[in-house]
Structure prediction request, 674 residues.
Amino acid sequence: MINAKLPKMFYGGDYNPDQWPKEIWQEDMRLFQLAGIDMATVGVFSWALSQPDEATYNFDWLDEVLDLLADNRVYACLATSTAAVPAWMAKRYPDVLRVDFEGHKRKFGGRHNFCPNSPTYQHYSKLMARKLAERYHDHPALAVWHVNNEYGGHCYCENCEKQFRVWLKKRYGSLDQVNQVWNTSFWGHTFYDWDEIVLPNRLSEHMNGDRTNFQGITLDYYRFMSDSLLSCYQGEYDEIKAITPHIMITTNLMGTFKPLDYFKWAKQMDIVSWDNYPRFDTPMSMIAMRHDLMRGLKDGMPFMLMEQTPSQQNWQPYNSLKRPGVMRLWSYQAVARGADTVMFFQLRRSVGACEKYHGAVIEHVGHENTRVFRECAELGRELTLLGDTLLDSKIQSKIAILFDWDNWWAVEMSSGPSIDLKYVDQVHRYYEAFYAQNIQVDLIGVDTPLAGYDIVIAPVLYMLKPGYAAKVKTFVERGGSFVTTFFSGIVNENDLVTLGGYPGELRELLGIWAEEIDALFPDMNNQIVMNETYGELKGAYNCGLLCDLIHSEGAEVLATYGSDFYQGMPVLTRNRFGKGDAWYVASSPDKQFMQDLVRELCGQKGIQPVVQGPEGVEATTRTKDGKNYLFLMNHNNSAQKLDLGETSGRNLLDGNRYGGVIQIKAKDVLILEV
Ligand code: GLA
Ligand code: ZN
Prediction:
């Protein structure tokens, strides 16, 4: 568990005393006490301060800060400060600077500005991590390590190019093998020497963004970059672990962040943490899905909510305020889905540079008499009241949705069939249908065991990795229900098509053959016409985006296309296989279809919603020591009634008992011990 040192949920966030005179530090401590803050993430961007030149280290300021925190019973989430290199380092060792997608060598500036394959960066970042661990291993404030910050981005420098070749040699052994998996006989690309291989960017294989001439090359480059950054993380991790084996180490992730394969990363993290910054138009179901994904990275282990804004962001086009109650509501949403900390960026609003208009617990006015501070202090009071009740509680689900980064990369760098095919959107469409019905779902990776689940859904399972088809077959044979969609089973892990008919290795399991794939323009659609009512599925629905033209090879045809030249061909099939069944949804359906499909699947397995409530009332259950904690969260702007049926329990937040038909106020949260 994250908080061995304090029997409650850590509450706090990024704290940058290094940007402030010392008089302010004392005032900060007073305000932290008032707000119930007991955790400060310190040192995230302080490399230049702690190491003013190559030979000098100066941690006096940090000694003082950590002592002050300890004196005030605030714990430190101690950052290694390696996410922004000092200017002196960039000047003296230009190899630390990145080369961008366009081929420009970057100058000093910004942050997350280091080349992961720079020997200088690797050396000095590890050294910094070790020095911090040596100095603070016994410090009473130290509670958790925060390596770097929001790793990400790509580099196209010469060091990276050389390392890419090394990475390829390790993965493939021979150049012949590389030529084969990249299919370099296409457009005369055969490589005869490793040095002929260059990085895929605007100067070589790329048109716009992800669109590449050679999916195999770009896919491997993405893997390589994710691995390169991971090895920077690992380098620091190893240094720290050797000195403080008992302290948890994390780095803050970013939810559905494309460049890094977080399932791979999470294996190297003691605890997952992530930063929740929805855009102004992000649906609640998407935020919920990201929490579930972050929980899924380590098979359901609770995670840290490392950052969220108490009020507003600065980097969106329109940075609206979180309305009264929303910060509390969204904090509990994170907890309801597995967070064991509630933390902000940031505790005090900075005075200059680009984050001065980013929300903070302490506003520019400097005192506690603000709406934001009052709301933060009220939440702080509640979290103190909750103590350790919820810590380490788990979320149980019989349904899994597969999420795979390699698949995501491959789907979106594919040239054709449609630029509108977005992997996360497709996953979210399925997720949303469960979310709307308050049915708990896990987001899982390809390595997650399937045995505990009744239903596994793999939207757009375009890339089938070795062994995955067999894994799914076993799952279905033993009684599971598997659902996949159009554009699935198409390629292997190198983006080479599995010949002999789509959906390749899944063809037997699904009992279908997809002969062609039609891409629809945004304003076009087709229909899913049910042959007859099938449980919850009835009548006709709309569909679009892609339409696979499929033939049944034994699967039961439940619905056919309603129009176009493939009218009458199957669009929804179900194949009995062993004790279970495998469904194929050959196009991208409307919301009504999703809702009905989810109801049907869950009905067949006897899976119940946590609570059936009005729209916008989200419900989840966390379980610990045989007790269930039912979270009810009203995202609406008005009070809502809901029927708890037989369920009743004491609300941990106000001590009152709730049962039967209850009323939940606008933006309010109940946590019932049931
Ligand atoms: C990220 C970073 C923080 C800060 C916030 C602002 O999450 O980790 O340093 O820049 O964004 O939203
Ligand atoms: Zn580089």
